Amino acid sequence: MALNLRQKQTECITRMLNLNQPVNATGTANEEVYKILIYDKFCQNILSPLISVKDLRKHGVTLYFLIDKDRKPVHDVPAVYFVQANQSNIQRIIADASRSLYDTFHLNFSSAVPRLLLEDIASGTLSSDSIQRIAKVHDQYLEFVTLEDNLFSLAQKSSFVQLNDPSAGDREIEEIVERIVTGLFCVLATLAVVPIIRCPRGGPAEMVASALDQRLRDHLLSKNNLFTEGGSFTSSFQRPVLCIFDRNFELSVALQHDFRYRALVHDVLGLRLNRLSLQGEKGGMKSFELDSSDPFWVANGLLEFPEVAVEIETQLNKYKKDVDEVNRRTGGTDGAEFDGTDLMGSTKHLMNAVNSLPELTERKQVIDKHTNIATVLLGEIKERSLDSYAKKENEMLVRGTIDRNELLGVLRGKGTKLDKLRFAIMYLISSESINQSEVESVEAALRESEVDTSAFQYVKKLKSLNVSMASANSASRNNIVDWAEKFYAVTAGVKNLLSSDRQLALPRTVEALMEGKPNPETDNYVVFDPRTPKSGSGSSHLKGPFKEAIVFMIGGGNYVEYGSLQELVQHQQPVKHVIYGTTEILTGVEFIEQLTLLGHKMGFGSSTAAPTP
Amino acid sequence: MSRIRDRTEDLKDAVRQTALSLGYNESKLAAVLASFIIHKPRQRSAFTKAALKTLESIEALEQFMLKHRKDYVDHHRTTEQERDSIEHEVSTFIKACQEQIDILKNSINNEEANSKGWLGVKADATNADTIAHKHGVVLILSERLHSVTTQFDQLRAIRFQDAINKAMPRRKLQRKANSNSVDTSKSSTSELKEPDEFQPDRLRVQQQLLDDETRALQVELTSLLDAVQETETKMVEMSALNHLMSTHVLQQAQQIEVLYDQVRYFICFPYFFLFICSATVHNVISGFVQVPLVSV
């Protein structure tokens, strides 16, 4: 059975809402039927894609608040807190308890609350004599956001910048790695699996993999741990493989203009936490939900935009036909056919019509929603000629080269500044060799359009480093400057792009790791198994084959990468499953901003605009 | 619940250590730690007690329905009369629950109105959050009742579907019988015509009279049957179309939901003014958007 992260996380949240008591058949047959839910911003983002206000009410939640809002006392009701374990939340909890805002307090932290903070709660509530109000404290291990059954994000901003920052010290890097490991640990605890961990050598990926392995080992020492909770006994070939990568492994995916529906809606319209806000015709903002409950979204997310438009048309016509059918059968019977038997039949049809009305209304709503979205998308695509960007970038990646006039034509043509910058960087990444004069003309064209070229400079530097690294022999690797070592993974990544095969590097690598056959690309990948002793041999079972994989991208990922992994496993026999996760889901613009920041940090300056008269 | 997740013991431990360091004596320490094990019996307000009672009633209704579900749906286990009586009981029960919910709803409004009367200052117990909470409780009860009545409506729909199916084949047979009888009467008259020519006049007249009578009777019977059939159809039709009993409950739930949303809206209202004074309209709007979760 496939691992379903969304379902598992929702189950944990449901249990938490029922005050961490086992949920019986009727759901809430105990005394504490009504409760108030308090959360912080982070946990609100965890809850919002998973549970609606109506569902909250089903579990007896009458009110829900952000923790730092001013709240009034509501007596004789328990309060369920779901917050991150940090100092400001703890202080607020102590304040609430001291004011006796609610009857009892059930504290739930999104990850393990440190001992020090527990002591703070103890001293704070003892001094205000309110300790008796604290009923329970639980660690929920839910510090991640699940968007789909098999898509999650750790919601950790700017980890790419922080990890690649040349001025970052060891302490800072360690902290970031710790945070990522905590997030991943929560995901694994919720799934209740201990995977085999694989990652490329060097860089943040190996750091995270090794730290996660250690964390799991330490945790598994105790008999009653999170992974024996479910009582599941999985033999090694049923364990999934956790593949950890760093963003530098394949930079192009985060930047390129993709033309498939889901990627477009995210990149162009700003889909966030499965919600989309669009400017309505009458000026107001309209909000749409796009998740697994929307059948059109599920079925057509991976289609290219023109096909989506066709599909909307098809659905609309089918709907109109069905409505006409219902009308024909029930309404307006002509006098000629009016007699006793038809009256009886029409009642039956009328009943069927009444029953099918909600379904028809729902279908119309979905069609209207996507018509709306597609219309706005079309406007953006036309204005920025995104179809041209997508096509040309693809060609560049496949051919490894582009005609200079075409290249400059794009840079001088339609599109926002960032579109052009993305295109220019895609050119850099995809060209097999750096043609100095061509690069200079690109830079000039960018400056003409008043684009900040720091990001471009940064990637240029990366690429030149890669060239120099490729020529350096293994012995001299240790002499490379510290921060450059973090770019080690770039070598492998850029090499991936030089192949003419358009398949993205990530799904190809994941496929190889899951198949478990000898493969020059993955053979030297590191392998960790938290369950076996470190010195143990018998590593044959550790290399596969695997039916399930969890793929984690450090530094940021997007729907293009997610979609490519889904396409990979759908076409495999026997069917396999992949869960995709990342530190944060980034649009192309957001990623470019991080590259720009890195460019600035490396001193590539930000003044590019020619002085205007 | 796994001990790994439950950290209450750790908190208790931290409490013990902190209490000792603060200089608590034995008895005080024991009292504090005891609160972790023995919980004070909760003081429930009248409102909460009434709400819990209503919830019990709704759950009892659900149990009743589940118990009689098989009997109700299956033809051979119950008669029409028994099914009618089950229906009647259920609808009385539903009405009683609705009334209880209405009482609760009105009590919130009354309390609000009364508390304002006292020196124009609201008592602590009737702040905006508490009122919103109470509206939430009533809304939850209303939605619960609605889900139960929807279940029952589905059972009713099955019943009426069966009723219609039963009526329909009869009609078909009836029409066939009608057309047959009409044909036979036609053919009998034509048959009779021929031998008439060879029969003496007296017999012919008698036969004619009989035929006329028979025909008249047939026509009368047919029209009577048609009338009865029509009435039956209309009755089944009307009750089938009106079988959405739960519409009333749904309307009530929707009314309560509107109230609830209004109250939640007004929790922000006082802060609305503060924002207006000190910030731009943009800040106000972004302040609003942060409060609710995903709205339905």
Shape of chain A: globular
Biggest interface, chains and residues, is: A-B, 74 and 71 residues
Overall pLDDT metric of chain A:
85
**Low-pLDDT segments of chain B:** 179-198, 268-296
- N- and C-termini, Cα separation of chain A: 67 Å
Strand order within the widest beta sheet of chain A: 6-7-14-13-9-8-12
| Alpha plus pi helix count of chain A | 23
- List the total number of helices of chain B: 9
Using only CA atoms, what is the Rg of chain B?
36 Å
Characterize the main sheet of chain A.
Answer: 7 strands, mixed
**Amino- and carboxy-terminal Cα gap of chain B:** 32 Å
| Strand tally of chain A | 14
Sheet with most strands of chain B: none
Percent helix range of chain A: 40-55%
Class inferred from helices and paired strands of chain B: mainly alpha
Mean pLDDT of chain B: 72
Low-confidence stretches of chain A: 25-29, 333-340, 470-501, 607-613
How many runs of DSSP E, i.e. beta strands of chain B?
Answer: 0
What is the chain-wise order of helices and strands of chain B?
A: HHHHHHHHH
So what's the overall shape of chain B? elongated
Pfam families (chain A): Sec1
InterPro entries (chain A): Sec-1-like_dom1, Sec-1-like_dom3a, Sec1-like, Sec1-like_dom2, Sec1-like_sf
Protein name (chain A): Sec1 family transport protein sly1
Family (chain A): Belongs to the STXBP/unc-18/SEC1 family.
What can you tell me about this protein's structure?
- The complex is a heterodimer of chains A (613) and B (296).
- The longest helix of chain A is centred in the middle third of the chain and has 45 residues, at 340-384.
- Chain A is 50% helix and 12% strand.
- Chain A has helices spanning 5-17, 41-47, 53-58, 87-98, 115-127, 159-164, 170-191, 203-220, 252-255, 261-269, 295-300, 305-330, 340-384, 386-399, 404-412, 417-430, 436-448, 454-471, 482-485, 488-498, 505-515, 559-570, 588-601, and strands spanning 35-39, 61-66, 78-83, 104-109, 134-139, 145-148, 151-153, 196-199, 241-246, 275-279, 285-289, 526-528, 548-554, 577-582.
- In chain A, helix 22 (559-570) links the parallel strand 13 and strand 14 (577-582).
- Chain A has 613 residues and is of the alpha/beta class.
- The model of chain A is unreliable at 25-29, 333-340, 470-501 and 607-613 (pLDDT under 50).
- Chain A is globular.
- In chain A, the strands form three sheets. A seven-stranded mixed sheet of chain A has the order 6-7-14-13-9-8-12, with helices on both faces. A five-stranded parallel sheet of chain A has the order 2-1-3-4-5.
- Chain B is mostly helical and 296 residues long.
- Helices cover 83% and strands 0% of the residues of chain B.
- In chain B, 17% of the residues are buried.
- Residues 179-198 and 268-296 of chain B have low confidence and may be disordered.
